[in-house]
Write a structure and sequence with these properties.
The chain has 250 residues and is an alpha/beta fold. It has a domain at 15-179: Glutaredoxin (3-Layer(aba) Sandwich), CATH 3.40.30.10. Helix content is 29%, strand content 15%. The protein is built from eight helices and nine strands. The protein has helices spanning 26-33, 47-58, 76-79, 99-103, 112-115, 118-129, 170-179, 184-201; strands at residues 15-18, 21-25, 36-40, 67-72, 92-94, 108-109, 140-141, 144-148, 154-159. It has a five-stranded mixed sheet. Strands 1-2 form a two-stranded antiparallel ribbon. A two-stranded antiparallel ribbon has the order 6-7. Helix 2 (47-58) links the parallel strand 3 and strand 4 (67-72).
Length: 250
């Protein structure tokens, strides 16, 4: 089992499948949408995953300054029967084998009581009314939220303590980017301020009066502060309504 990923680590480039395309390059996704918010959740048939997938779709217009993609532990070929390229406004990455989940050491929980928040219980109760039947004793896949720079460097990392411990919707994601000063105007202003401060603090090279070139210093790389986002509002819940059968991946 790999170690947990941390801020400053770099995610490797890989190929991924979606329900509507195969062998996509993660490098291309980063270059088009960075800073990229990547949320890992359980399989797409899980009612909590469906609920948050719906929230992200319905509020996607609120995300102004970054990209978003949802990763699920589902088979792309099965989801392809109901999810086309225009169904969701964001990419849906499928990792049924859990290769990324294992690489990032995203934990599972055998304790239903510990893995479900109050909001999670409400979503599950509503899903049961609609015919969802959870598998008894099954391990619950906990979530992970990452924000990645263009080269795959982790700018933010949060391992969820419960199944609903992810950004509430795309408005919350936008607020998170602003809080972390990862929006375009903040990134430019912050870089300029840090660069000027570093240049002012750096020692000036001594004059050698023709006895050789002055020494060079390492390239300055600003370090950004990292803060966690606020906990989601547990009072809000909604059910996914894009598909005929929200809990059947077959």
């Amino acid at each position: 089992m790999a170690d947990r990923i941390h801020v400053g680590d770099k995610l490797p480039f890989f190929l991924y499948d979606t329900p509507y395309s195969a062998k996509n390059r993660f490098r291309d996704l980063l270059s088009q949408r960075a800073p990229l918010v990547l949320v890992f959740m359980a399989n797409f048939g899980h009612p909590i995953t469906r609920t948050f997938a719906s929230r992200y779709a319905n509020t996607y217009a609120a995300l102004q300054d970054g990209g978003f993609a949802l990763v699920v532990r589902s088979r792309a070929d099965k989801l392809s029967r109901s999810i086309g390229p225009n169904t969701l406004p964001y990419p849906l990455l499928c990792d049924a084998a859990g290769v990324l989940y294992e690489h990032l050491n995203i934990p599972t929980s055998k304790s239903t009581l510990m893995s479900y928040s109050l909001e999670g219980w409400r979503i599950l109760r509503e899903a049961k009314k609609q015919g969802y039947k959870p598998t008894k004793g099954a391990e619950q896949q906990l979530p992970l939220t990452l924000i990645l720079d263009r080269d795959g460097t982790v700018l933010f990392c949060h391992y969820g303590a419960s199944l609903t411990d992810v950004p509430e919707d795309c408005a919350a994601i936008q607020s998170l980017l602003e809080e972390l000063e990862l929006t375009p105007e903040h990134r430019e202003d912050t870089y300029e301020e840090e660069l000027q401060a570093a240049m002012a603090a750096a020692p000036r090279p001594r004059s050698h009066h023709g006895r050789g070139a002055p020494e060079t210093t390492d390239e300055f790389q600003p370090v950004r502060p990292v803060r966690e986002y606020n906990a989601p509002d547990l009072e809000k819940t909604s059910m996914f309504g894009l598909f005929d059968d929200p809990y059947d991946e077959n």
